[in-house]
Design brief:
Layout lengths: L8 E2 L3 E4 L6 H9 L16 H17 L4 E6 L2 E14 L4 E8 L8 H15 L5 E7 L3 H9 L3 E12 L2 E11 L8 H8 L9 H28 L6 H21 L4 H15 L6 H5 L2
Helix pairs in contact: 1-2, 6-7
């Protein structure tokens, strides 16, 4: 990916522009202070206009710092703020990001959310060369999913208990969209880069032993995190578990390297085996009688 200058975006009916201090009235009354607008967001509505003033001030400071992408949504011919949309969780290493948006209640069901989101997705793909955008919404808010689907995103699953709000865990529906103009990061790319951190003094036999032992050790650490979550009352540490999965991937790459087999070949062979075993998808009979 690359960073680009923030700029205004234009659609058939909307102008997406920088957020300004003079937007404060609409920002508070129409958006961040409205309980209906904020119902399925992770924060509570602003209790007074002072909170909104502080929020806009922080946005203005981030504009000055650069590499910050948050737009105020306005209708053409009327510069008053009707919504906010922005790119969040930009990750240079994985070349991914997400987005967040909110729209005033009087402007729901007009297609404005989809129109603004499509413009932001184009900006992310064309200007930032983002490879993949992933976003989610609480299951109680299907209208947000409709916006994502209309903007070209694909539903990829449901994640249980992802967010906590008011001491309640919320399930989410997850969507993604991929940049057709950016080449993906392949398994062989990972193996090639990961093996630059391999101890060059190891023989192939040592690599093989180190690889399979490492797989067992890191899998044990992943199991321990899940055990603590399921049986000891710990919150599931998703970031820690993701790091353990990354370590597992490294040792898998090392084991394949020791065997002189490209990692992609191993993954493709596994898919071929699964397709032969479950040609129509998983079934209990096929699993029992394989």
């Amino acid at each position: 990916m690359r960073y680009a200058d923030f700029r205004h975006l234009e659609t058939d009916r909307l102008i997406l522009r920088d957020i300004r201090m003079e937007d404060i009235q609409e920002y508070y009354e129409r958006l961040y202070g409205d309980g209906d607008v904020c119902r399925y967001l992770l924060f509570d509505p602003h209790q007074d206009i002072g909170e909104s003033l502080q929020s806009i001030q922080e946005i203005l400071e981030k504009y000055e710092e650069g590499n910050f992408y948050r737009w105020g949504i306005t209708e053409k011919g009327d510069d008053s703020l009707i919504g906010v949309i922005g790119l969040v969780r930009i990750d240079e290493q994985t070349n991914t990001c997400s987005f967040a948006y909110l729209l005033g209640c009087d402007y729901w069901n007009r297609g404005y959310g989809t129109e603004a989101l499509q413009a932001v997705i184009r900006f992310a793909f064309e200007e930032l060369e983002i490879q993949r955008i992933v976003a989610d919404h609480m299951v109680q808010n299907p209208a947000s999913g409709a916006v994502m689907r209309k903007a070209g995103m694909t539903h990829i699953g449901t994640e249980q208990g992802k967010y906590s709000k008011h001491s309640k865990l919320w399930d989410v529906e997850v969507y993604e969209i991929r940049n057709p103009n950016v080449q993906g990061f392949s398994a062989n790319d990972y193996q090639r880069q990961a093996m630059t951190t391999l101890n060059p003094a190891l023989s192939r036999k040592d690599m093989l032993i180190n690889g399979v032992m490492g797989l067992c050790g890191e899998a044990g650490e992943a199991i321990d995190l899940v055990k603590k979550h399921l049986h000891q009352g710990h919150a599931l540490d998703r970031q820690a578990l993701a790091k353990e999965l990354g370590d597992i991937a490294w040792y898998l790459a090392e084991t394949a390297y020791a065997l002189e087999i490209p990692l992609e070949d191993i993954l493709k062979a596994n898919l071929a085996k699964l397709k032969e075993r479950y040609p129509d998808g998983f079934s209990r009979d096929a699993s029992v009688n394989r």
